[in-house]
Amino acid sequence: EFVKSVNGLEKVVLREIHGSSVEVYLYGAHVTSWKNEHGEELLFISSKEIFKPPKPIRGGIPICFPQFSNLGPLELHGFARNRLWALDDDPPPLPPDVTNKVFLDLILRSTTEDLKIWPHSFEYRLRITLGPGGDLMLTSRVRNTGTDGKPFTFTFAYHTYFSVSDISEVRVEGLETLDYLDNCQKRERFTEQGDSLTFESEVDRIYLSTPTKIAVMDHEKKRTFLIRKDGLPDAVVWNPWDKKAKAMADFGDDEYKHMVCVEAAAVEKPITLKPGEEWRGRQELSVVNKLLDS
Ligand code: BG6
Q1: Residue 147: inside a domain
Q2: Catalytic annotation on 159?
Q3: What does 81-147 look like in DSSP terms, one character per residue?
Q4: With bands split at pLDDT 50, 70 and 90, how would you rate the model's confidence at 140?
Q5: Which of 75, 117, 126, 240 has a 20 to 30 Å separation from 84 between CA atoms?
Q6: Which residues have CB under 8 Å from 119's CB, separation 6+?
Q7: Which ligand 1 atom is at minimum distance from the Cα of 77?
Q8: Is residue 53 in some structural domain?
Q9: Which 8-state DSSP code applies to residue 61?
Q10: Which candidate, 68, 72, 58, 71, places its Cα nearest to that of 28?
Q11: Domain extent at residue 45
């Protein structure tokens, strides 16, 4: 289902027979809504969001490509999140288990303008799939389409903003004892101690080589989000807390209480693609209305 949205931006709504749904803006190939079968919103979108290019959308699932954060010469988190993507009329073949799933295939190709700031030809195919239980799968395929014989390198993240009732009641499980780079402390390397991760101040960390399964537990709502990832070794955890929240124009002063970003990512070891090579990175989100062990 195609809908014209705010400022003439187009979005596609995917609905699954049990009632869950997903909304995707062609601008950024940005998932802005993911609802369970009871119609409850599972992603955070800022109430200050104005949906006006070239600003990226604050909330949902921004795609950070070809650069995560400021780890290179490009604008913060790269340019994929503020480009207009197209429907992919030549998508990759469907896997055999595709019955009862609804999906959308989008594509981004480097334009002449993009090549001026990042001189590497690529084709980026994104498949967004909503499973029968309301699971949300994002599969990215990036191909080096350059004819100059040169490899290119990129970093990446699915910058998912989960909606939570109260950040002080949230725990992230699956990152215990791992090494992380702390963005709040000049990207110094630390080791996570003991227990699951909780939030009492700004958190901005890149956890390195994590397990493929991470759980975000919302204790107040008694809800667990499960993130499964493939091809994405790292995981970024971010909550801006009060001071940073106030400094962001597209984010409400108190909204940090109601979101947490847990991002399947490839940051520490950038991905290199030779001409003709393809990389695949997948994230699968599911939710249950109880507190699960990860
Ligand atoms: C996180 C980064 O992934 O994204 C943070 O680790 C950054 O450092 C945050 O502040 C938000 O970035 P932006 O560009 O969407 O404001």
Answers
A1: yes
A2: yes
A3: GGSB-EE-SSPPPPPTT-TT-EEEEEEEE--HHHHHHS---EEEEEEEEE-TTS-EEEEEEEEE--S
A4: very high
A5: 240
A6: none
A7: 14
A8: yes
A9: B
A10: 58
A11: 2-288
The encoded tokens of residue 281 equal: 């990175």
Contact 15, 102 (CB under 8 A): yes
Residue 294 lies in a domain: no
When divided into structural domains, the chain yields a total of: 1
**3-state DSSP assignment of residue 167:** helix
CATH value at residue 215 = 2.70.98.10
What CA–CA distances, in Å, run from 24 to 11, 28, 236?
Answer: 5, 9, 22
157 lies in a domain?
yes
- Using CB distances shorter than 6 Å, the residues near ligand 1 are 69, 76-77, 159, 183, 204, 236, 238, 261, 263
For residues 205 and 180, give the distance between their C-alpha atoms in angstroms, rounded to a whole number: 6
Which atom of ligand 1 lies closest to the CA of 183?
Answer: 8
Among the listed residues 159, 173, 268, 284, the single catalytic one is 159
Q: What is the dihedral of CA 203, 59, 129, 197, to 10 degrees?
A: 20
* Predicted interface score ipTM higher than 0.90: yes
Q: How far apart are CA 208 and CA 153, in angstroms?
A: 18
One-letter identity of residue 280: R
Q: Where are the alpha helices (DSSP H) in the chain?
A: 112-117, 241-247
Q: Tell me how many helices (H) and strands (E) the chain has.
A: 2, 20
